[in-house]
Amino acid sequence: xSYTALYRKWRxxxxxxxxxxxxxxxxxxxxxxxGRIGHxxxxxxxxxxxxxxxxxxxxxxxxxxxxxxxxPCGECPSCQAIASGASxxxxxxxxxxxxxxxxxxxxxxxxxxxxxxxxxxxxxIDEVHMLSIGAFNALLKTLEEPPxxxxxxxxxxxxxxIPVTILSRCQRYDFRRIPARVIADRLREVTEAEHIDIEEKxxxxxxxxxxxxxxxxxxxxxxxxxxxxxxxxxxDHVLDILGAADQTLFSKMFSAVMEKRTKDCILILEEMVIQxxxxxxxxxxxIWYLRNLLxxxxxxxxxxxxxxxxxxxxxxxxxxxxxxxxxxIRQIRILSExxxxxxxxxxxxxxxxxxxxKLTKPEMEVNIESLLERISSLEARVEEGIAFPVSAGGxxxxxxxxxxxxxxxxxxxxxxxxxxxxxxxxxxxxxEGVRAAGAGGQLNSGTxxxxxxxxxxxxxxxxxxxxxxxxxxxxxxxxRQMGTSVRPSFRGTVVEPAGDSCLCIVFSDPVNYAIGNRPxxxxxxERYIEEHYQKKIYLKTRxxxxxxxxxxxxxxxxxxxxxxHIGIEIEEE
Length: 573
Known about the structure:
Layout: H1 6-9, H2 22-34, E1 40-44, H3 51-63, H4 77-84, E2 90-94, H5 101-110, E3 121-126, H6 133-144, E4 150-156, H7 164-167, E5 171-174, H8 180-193, H9 200-209, H10 214-227, H11 235-242, H12 247-258, H13 262-274, H14 279-298, H15 303-306, H16 310-320, H17 325-342, H18 348-360, H19 368-383, E6 414-415, E7 418-419, E8 434-436, E9 443-445, E10 457-458, H20 462-480, E11 494-497, E12 502-507, H21 510-516, H22 519-533, E13 538-543, E14 553-554, H23 557-563
Parallel strand pairs: 1-4, 1-5, 2-3, 3-4, 10-14, 12-13
Antiparallel strand pairs: 6-7, 8-9, 11-12
Helix pairs in contact: 2-3, 3-4, 5-6, 8-9, 9-11, 10-11, 12-13, 12-16, 13-18, 14-16, 14-17, 17-18, 17-19
């Protein structure tokens, strides 16, 4: 006797055997019990979710002599004839190969004759979306007003290709993907009945790899047991046969990506190629791993969503703490685009290597996601005290300096009360510059190593000056409270007075300005200042103009004389 594939051998024979489609099963059973049977049904959903199986069970049930609560008995002559394929009352048509007008005309001629046995003639048209436009038009009239003894069951995986005129004439049922836990339960029943010794971890992986399709799960199980016939089927065996990778490999790859170790990423990929892993499957599984990391960061109870063991959850939680959501979203986007390209690519390895280089080098991309990741990386290095090389004419980021002002050299410390500012005497040609020795320290005379433009001195009311000094001194703390999604956008910003109880935030970068200029962000900063500093201050924003130098010193005449102990000449215009 020839061998029967598991997905054929374990096809459901009645409604009680159908798993994961309870809503559809109960509706069809109620129709049979009440006698309210429709004339046209449309079953739509992804592959392997039970569309054809339920159609065949329904065909037997409507013709069964002794139905049991809507399910076929399986013992009467009608049920046995339909199950063996000998009944003339149930006709299965594959629309992929019978999609012409002539095939539909044959059906229209056949429906004129009543069934020879049983009550209904049932036509099951599989992959109905493959019918031509002419065939759909030929089916319309018969589908709308068929004889009382005819039932049409249309099945499709691409319901968007069905004409609206057909949809409006059918009862539509959307088949859901089967949850992995339901597939795993069914696989345990099958393996126990088939005397297949299998590891529990392997069952769970097969259930996830099936992607919501029972038929795929049984086909994968059939493939694995054939290779390891007569021995226990382990998790490692399943990975080897399916060309998949373990989660530890994903964690290793993720760590290499986050630490910008491009060479290690390429070596890991080469190792998988040598082992014969399927590269497309690796990319899809790695995207799923990144999705789990994103859930661990975003959801409160992510353990119930990722469906894995305690050890894997612990490893997942550790990896989730290595980055933020923006970086994960960027990586998922890059790999999702890669997954679409791999379907038709002849050099999959090269495309994956390019994607890995992009992941480890965000500067290769010009978009907001990569910019935010680069800023986060710079922030982390600054917090660790790692020095940055400074190009000529660039920014020297020194404690207390004018950080973020392009083309300026930051000064360590500054004038007492005006930290980080360098003041030169007006008409400074031929005169020695004056540089602060430190915050609140004494002034020393010397020659500036890199001349700065003469700061403009603007006198403002004392109340405005107090507000400005308060916010400037606390600006870093205020921005840190806005969260990692907003904080990078305010790097390099400067606060300047804009009137009574009003300050203006000046952005030097147009991309940061577009992100930080949102009313919700500005409103949150205003509320934070009011709650923590008891100051009702309104904030405005603007972008720094081309060639503008933000080195204005806001003081009153009295304060300026107190802070600077040298003569100041004010030229009259």
